[in-house]
């Protein structure tokens, strides 16, 4: 019998909602795309998005910017991180995270990874002691949130300021507190492959008026900070406005217009992602050779991607599984690959950072498989994907037994 093949596309997102298209067309017709190109007391799409995103996350202040990577670099600058400073971060993350640290001339210090794919809090404490670093850029990589209560306790004890990279956790929470609201600044991305899609884009939130005043100046506010409805009052800019360099990275009305209807839809989209995630999780349960990542009850997830571990598998066996699934249309990414491929790269490929060894992270990445779950997939699609992976994993273990 022919083996079933999956024909969906792992990189195909849903279309932009009609309401967003109409709002975008209205901006285009106005000709006023720049965020400060406003008439009279008009709020404008960017400020409206900031106000709505602040309300959504429960933050005092929000700032919309050009990308998630820009949001992180801006956050680091707003905390005063500069040349030669050391910044703690996850050993398992994506390139824009160490890139943001390098962009301010600082040095990333990578922290080990647990079996839950989260930052190793014991290693964090040890490296905070060893390096004297004052800032942690915490990446909630692939949506996995560490024990945020314990992490914040360790951060306080070590005098660490925490910036959260929520590129994969927009809409997620830890014990009811939205991701991005534990540290001093939360950073988000609205790039096409994240939870809202404006092509490129980013957001920052904070409750700290000084920090947000600096972020607004940095983003390129041309002394128009009074036009930020979701920013601190103008008295907070008194000295900041002279001391803060302009590193332009504003968002424009066109992108904000596209994002506002998506923000309104986000809770419903999260529910759809989680239905796909739980369906796939069921399909892969109790599969010998595969270890699933159990999600803690404190975590409210956004299941926009799925990971599992192949503990003890050889590189050759992992490569064979990825190829076999790929031949049946199931696009798996392997974080253990020696060479960086597309979005997937390892900390040792980021050679602008001082060389570091993370044996526990290496062991995890050696068996870590990753897959996107775009909302263009149905639950039936995801059941088929699960059954294909199941088949191929069982086939692989049969081959392993036969070759012994
Ligand atoms: C996508 C991403 C970002 C931000 O990326 P941009 O492409 O700059 O918007 C940050 N961190 C992680 C982990 C990401 O995947």
Roughly what is the average pLDDT, rounded to an integer?
96
Count of extended strands = 14
Q: How widely separated are the two ends?
A: 28 Å
Largest sheet: 7 strands, mixed
Written as H for each helix and E for each strand, in order along the chain, the element string is HHEHEHEHEHEEEEEHHHEEEHEHEH
| Unreliable parts | none
Number of helices in the DSSP assignment = 12
Would you identify the CATH architecture of the largest domain?
Answer: 3-Layer(aba) Sandwich
Number of domains: 2
Quote the CATH topology of the largest domain. Answer: Aspartate Aminotransferase, domain 2
> What is the top-level CATH class of the largest domain?
Alpha Beta
The CATH superfamily of the largest domain appears as: Type I PLP-dependent aspartate aminotransferase-like (Major domain)
Shape: globular
Modified residues (N6-(pyridoxal phosphate)lysine): 194
Keywords: Aminotransferase, Pyridoxal phosphate, Transferase
Protein name: Aminotransferase DegT
Active site: 194
Name its key features.
alpha/beta, globular, 14 strands, single chain, Aspartate Aminotransferase, domain 1, binds pyridoxal-5'-phosphate, 4-stranded antiparallel sheet, 7-stranded mixed sheet, 404 residues, 39% helix, Aspartate Aminotransferase, domain 2, 12 helices
Overall description:
The protein folds into 2 domains: 243 residues, Aspartate Aminotransferase, domain 2 (3-Layer(aba) Sandwich), CATH 3.40.640; 134 residues, Alpha-Beta Complex (Aspartate Aminotransferase, domain 1), CATH 3.90.1150. The protein is globular. Helix 3 packs across helix 7. The protein is an alpha/beta fold and 404 residues long. The mean pLDDT is 96. A hairpin with a 2-residue loop joins strand 6 and strand 7. Helix content is 39%, strand content 14%. Strands 1-9-8-5-4-2-3 form a 7-stranded mixed beta sheet, with helices on both faces. A 4-stranded antiparallel beta sheet has the order 10-12-14-13, covered by helices on one side. It has a 3-stranded antiparallel beta sheet with strand order 7-6-11, with no helix packed on it. 47% of the residues are buried. The chain binds pyridoxal-5'-phosphate. The site of pyridoxal-5'-phosphate has 15 residues, from helix 3 and helix 4.
């Amino acid at each position: 019998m022919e083996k079933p093949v999956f024909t969906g596309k792992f990189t195909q997102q849903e279309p932009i909602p009609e309401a967003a298209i109409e709002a975008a067309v209205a901006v285009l017709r106005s000709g006023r795309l720049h965020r400060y190109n406003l008439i009279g007391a008009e709020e404008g799409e960017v400020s409206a998005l900031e106000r709505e995103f602040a309300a959504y996350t429960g933050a005092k202040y929000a700032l919309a910017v050009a990308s998630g990577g820009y949001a992180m670099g801006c956050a680091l600058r707003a905390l005063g991180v500069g040349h030669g400073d050391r910044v703690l971060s996850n050993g398992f993350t994506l390139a824009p995270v160490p890139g943001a640290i390098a962009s301010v001339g600082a040095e990333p210090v990578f922290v080990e990874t647990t079996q839950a794919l989260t930052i190793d809090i014991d290693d964090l404490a040890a490296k905070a002691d060893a390096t004297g670093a004052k800032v942690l850029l915490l990446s909630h990589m692939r949506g996995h949130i560490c024990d945020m209560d314990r992490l914040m306790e360790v951060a306080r004890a070590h005098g660490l300021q925490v910036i959260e990279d929520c590129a994969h956790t927009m809409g997620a929470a830890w014990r009811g507190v939205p991701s991005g609201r534990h540290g001093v600044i939360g950073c988000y991305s609205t790039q096409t492959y994240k939870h809202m899609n404006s092509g490129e884009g980013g957001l920052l939130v904070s409750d700290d008026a000084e920090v947000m005043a600096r972020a607004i100046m940095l983003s390129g506010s041309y002394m128009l900070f009074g036009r930020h409805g979701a920013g601190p009052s103008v008295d907070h800019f008194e000295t900041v406005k002279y001391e803060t360099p302009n590193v332009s990275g504003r968002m424009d009305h066109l992108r904000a217009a596209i994002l506002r209807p998506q923000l309104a839809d986000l809770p419903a989209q999260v529910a759809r992602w989680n239905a796909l995630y739980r369906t796939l999780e069921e399909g892969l349960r109790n599969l010998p050779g595969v270890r699933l990542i159990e999600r803690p009850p404190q975590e409210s997830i956004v299941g926009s991607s799925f990971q599992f571990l192949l503990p003890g598998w050889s590189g050759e066996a992992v490569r064979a599984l990825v190829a076999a699934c790929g031949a049946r249309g199931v696009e798996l990414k392997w974080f253990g690959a020696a060479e960086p491929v597309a979005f997937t790269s390892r900390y040792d490929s980021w050679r602008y950072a001082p060389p570091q060894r993370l044996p526990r992270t290496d062991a995890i990445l050696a068996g870590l498989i990753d897959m996107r779950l775009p909302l263009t997939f149905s639950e039936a699609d995801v059941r088929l994907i699960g059954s294909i992976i199941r088949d191929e994993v069982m086939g692989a273990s049969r081959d392993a037994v036969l070759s012994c």
